[in-house]
Amino acid sequence: MKKSLLMIHTGNGKGKTTAALGLAFRAVGHGFKVSVIQFIKGGRRSGEIETAARLSDLIDFNVTGRGFTWQSDDLEKDAALARKAWETAKEKIRSGRYRLVILDEMTYLFKYGMLDEDEVIEFLADRPESVHIVITGRSASEKLCAAADLVTEMNAVKHPFASGISAQKGIEY
Ligand code: ATP
Ligand code: MG
FRET partner for 75 with CA separation of 20 to 30 A, picked from 1, 49, 54, 84? Predict the structure, then answer.
């Protein structure tokens, strides 16, 4: 039986975004088109943006937002960008053009009240039958997890940041 899945990668350990990108790597191999929407822009230009640019006929990569919310000087601007990004995501999902849509770091938008979680859950429940969704981000709510078909919690057993080792190119970004 074929079924489109709603998948959540959450938890405090490393691997949420990269596991989602791993799924993109897998899906592309089957000829599926993939769309990635990164709701929070990292401080550095990530390797995945460059890779996606080389595969632009297969992977549609969108970076939105202005960086991490706890560094923000204008939360209203962030919220407006988040809503706009969600409108873009909805269009991509509705179009049915993409077999896999990755909503990266989306949970933070719920946490900071920038997006209505109920609206998102409702929309996703009504998405086209062919579209798999991955949502990543820490602290996925019980409600979101209940709506999903698959939830993986990354658990931080050890992370180099704790030993004062800074973010490494090609690993962290
Ligand atoms: P990745 O993109 O490497 O898969 P992630 O998506 O699970 O990581 P995020 O919560 O999006 O992690 O955080 C982004 C950055 O924070 C990454 O550079 C990641 O390495 C780092 N990070 C993740 N987990 C931890 C942790 N437990 N302690 C410190 N830094 C972390
Ligand atoms: Mg991430």
Answer: 49
Substitution site in 10, 14, 161, 166 for ligand 1 pocket (most atoms within 8 Å of beta carbon): 14
Query: What is the residue whose two structure tokens read 């993109």?
Result: 24
Domain presence at residue 164: no
Q: Which residue, among 63, 6, 8, 61, has the nearest Cα to 36 in the 3D structure? A: 61
The number of residues in the chain equals 173
Nearest ligand, measured from the Cα of 44: 1
77 lines ligand 1 (CB under 6 A): no
Q: Whose CA is nearest to atom 13 of ligand 1?
A: 14
Total domains in the chain come to: 1
Read off the pLDDT of each residue in 97-125 and give the average, rounded to a whole number: 96
Residues pairing with 104 in the sheet: 38
Q: Which range of residues forms the domain containing residue 109?
A: 6-155
Distance 1 CA to ligand 2 centre (A): 31
- Domain assignment of residue 62, yes or no: yes
For residue range 30-81, what is the model confidence (pLDDT) as tens digits?
999 999 999 987 778 899 999 999 999 999 999 987 766 566 777 788 889 9
Does residue 168 lie within any of the structural domains? Answer: no
pTM above 0.70, yes or no: yes
